Recover the amino acids of this structure.
């Protein structure tokens, strides 16, 4: 009797070990971290990103996961603050031991927090960081957000062609990495296109009144306003411009590319030109699937931030499909990093591949997005695609 | 362009003054730098927004509601936080630190309840038409803000100077203990002051939210920073000082954008503020504080 119990125990143990071994290859959870600004002034971007990430993870898990492994998303709030982003990165990487990290939401925070991931040899994947230089931090830094430097020249070219623009005024937020970097990209593109600038004006985060700058712009006789702003300031800027009788086109960067402009600026949102890898009205089957699924799940229309987050999960899943996870965290983190650059993907934002960036002294570093921009103009509360 | 910029400066200055009035009132009577004033300002805006957006209240009713809600919150802050500190004779800095905590609490709570994103009042709430005066554009709202700032300042000045209530408040500002010995209901007037200041903050929250087209949980923070500059400039606790200080900052900002360059705006505005304080450390209308042995 005793012997048979021992035998049974052995058999059970063997079976358990086998099941466990099989389990780690076929049914383990893959823990993925995300540090996004769910609250604070950038909360509206972070919440869209969370929705996009969650939708993609749910869809992948519903169709069997990655090689049978379920993706588990752990999202933490980094509040759009550098200090908080650093704390959250440390928590996700060292305490929760995630395989990789999505985020953070703002380029400002990415500059501060991405070096943590780089030092720990963990992939950090930005879905919304478009400022220059983020991927120069190191070879574990990836993003699928197309940089302003790639999108803005195309936006300018199309807007100038359609709206008969001869000279422009420039307005930007000078206390933020993202809006400042957008300004630099616009400036370079305007020089390349040889468009004269009548006046360059700035504002700061939290300003409520932009009429002084807008009055000056109106007096300068510009045919259009080139605007590098986040929506929190960009929407009141458009409203106040129209109130002052400044009815020229606005040409915006990534921060202005959100359906929230229609809520915040209502009928004064017309004639805003934006470029982006994604447009709500893009008719590809991948995008239509995304828009329908997102709208059903969240009862709201998606924006670019949701779309890029959604595609980012698919890109990571594709990379995970190419690696054999060993259960050794360091090795798996390394394997994911090595597989990511080889991924090509066609998602809601269209055809995508990575392009290697370089550090300031020219050495190979992280990876930027290689993607074509779609230029749209707002009209009657909708984006109309123009090319 | 100069005419338009003068109007811009006047309306921006009155926006700052409107915020600073309640802020300076609390300092003048209670001697507390109330850093929760930005949060109370935000609560007023959200209260009005809820009523307008969900219950279709007209704007005037929403303004009254914002006045009452913010006033009640201000009273609650006084009863729950400032009064216990007064009773324990807490040193000057303690109530200020406590109000930072109150501000964080309300800011986070409104993020939790209403979400982090910017909201706005429905567009048809105000007549959208612009008034034209010889090439100068001014909105109905700006006229209202300018008018209200001057009217509120005048009203508060009359109350402080000409009424029994005002005399009592000034006595308290001088010395709460002496005022109590004279039979003044000091605690009651502290409550009244906190509630009135917060109620004014709520009204300015609605108007400034309409002006900037944005209601969001942290909307009070940038205003708070400007508000501190304004009341220091005007003279801590002085009601005329709030308006003059607000106008000074508004004009300094707008004129430096117009004639020097917007990158230099804050440098010029705060540089001027620094110069004024060098010449008059007590602020434009402030009295020199005498330290009694």
């Amino acid at each position: 009797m005793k012997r048979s119990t021992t035998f049974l125990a052995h058999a059970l143990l063997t079976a358990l070990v086998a099941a466990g071994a099989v389990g780690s290859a076929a049914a383990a959870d893959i823990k993925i971290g995300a540090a996004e600004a769910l609250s604070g002034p950038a909360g509206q971007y972070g919440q869209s990103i969370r929705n996009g990430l969650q939708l993609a993870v749910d869809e992948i898990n519903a169709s069997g996961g990655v090689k049978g492994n379920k993706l588990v998303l752990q999202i933490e709030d980094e509040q759009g603050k550098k200090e908080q982003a650093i704390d959250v990165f440390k928590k996700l990487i060292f305490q929760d031991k995630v395989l990789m990290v999505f985020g953070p939401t703002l380029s400002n925070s990415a500059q501060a927090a991405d070096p943590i991931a780089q030092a720990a040899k963990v992939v950090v994947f930005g879905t919304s960081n478009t400022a220059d230089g983020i991927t120069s931090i190191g070879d574990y830094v990836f993003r699928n957000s197309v940089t302003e430097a790639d999108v803005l020249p195309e936006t300018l070219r199309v807007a100038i062609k359609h709206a008969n623009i001869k000279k422009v005024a420039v307005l930007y937020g000078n206390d933020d990495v993202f809006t400042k970097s957008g300004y630099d990209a616009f400036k370079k593109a305007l020089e390349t296109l040889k468009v004269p600038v009548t006046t360059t004006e700035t504002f700061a985060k939290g300003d409520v009144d932009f009429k002084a700058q807008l009055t000056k712009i109106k007096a300068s006789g510009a045919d259009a306003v080139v605007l590098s702003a986040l929506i929190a300031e960009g929407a009141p800027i458009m409203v106040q411009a129209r109130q002052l009788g400044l009815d020229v086109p606005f040409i915006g960067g990534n921060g202005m590319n959100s359906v929230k402009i229609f809520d915040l600026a209502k009928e004064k949102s017309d004639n805003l030109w934006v470029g982006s890898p994604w447009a709500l009205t893009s008719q590809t089957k991948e995008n239509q699937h995304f828009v329908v699924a997102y709208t059903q799940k969240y009862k709201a229309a998606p924006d670019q931030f949701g779309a890029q987050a959604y595609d980012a999960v698919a890109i990571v899943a594709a990379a995970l499909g190419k690696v054999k996870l060993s259960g050794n965290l360091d090795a798996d983190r390394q394997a994911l990093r090595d597989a990511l650059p080889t991924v090509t993907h066609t998602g809601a934002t269209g055809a995508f591949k990575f392009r290697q960036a370089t550090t300031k002294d020219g050495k190979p570093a992280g990876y930027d997005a290689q993607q074509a921009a779609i230029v749209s103009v707002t009209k009657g509360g909708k984006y109309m695609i123009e090319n | 362009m100069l005419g338009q910029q003068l109007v811009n400066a006047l309306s921006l200055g009155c926006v700052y003054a409107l915020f600073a009035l309640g802020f300076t009132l609390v300092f003048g009577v209670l001697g507390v730098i109330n850093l929760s004033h930005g949060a109370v300002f935000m609560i007023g805006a959200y209260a009005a927004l809820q009523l307008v957006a969900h219950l279709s209240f007209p704007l005037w009713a929403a303004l009254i509601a914002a006045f009452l809600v913010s006033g009640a919150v201000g009273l609650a802050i006084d009863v729950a936080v400032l009064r216990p500190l007064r009773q324990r004779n807490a040193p000057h800095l303690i109530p200020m630190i406590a109000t930072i905590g109150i501000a964080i609490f309300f800011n986070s709570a409104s993020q939790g309840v209403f979400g982090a994103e910017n909201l706005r009042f429905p567009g048809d709430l105000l007549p959208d038409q612009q008034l034209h005066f010889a090439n100068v554009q001014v909105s109905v709202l700006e006229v209202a803000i300018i008018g209200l700032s001057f009217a509120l300042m005048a009203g508060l000045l009359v109350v402080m100077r000409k009424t029994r209530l005002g005399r009592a408040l000034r006595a308290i500002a001088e010395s709460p203990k002496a005022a109590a010995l004279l039979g003044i209901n000091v605690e009651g007037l502290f409550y009244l002051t906190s509630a009135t200041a917060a109620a004014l903050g709520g009204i300015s929250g609605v108007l400034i939210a309409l002006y900037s087209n944005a209601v969001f949980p942290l909307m009070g923070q940038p205003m708070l920073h400007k508000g501190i500059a304004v009341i220091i400039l005007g003279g801590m606790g002085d009601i005329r000082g709030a308006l003059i200080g607000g106008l000074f900052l508004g004009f300094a900002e707008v004129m430096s954008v117009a004639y020097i360059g917007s990158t230099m705006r804050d440098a010029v505005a705060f540089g001027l503020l620094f110069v004024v304080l060098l010449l008059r450390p007590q602020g434009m209308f402030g009295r020199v504080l005498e330290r009694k042995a």
In short: Residues 13-220 of chain B form one domain. Chain B is about 75% helix and 5% strand.
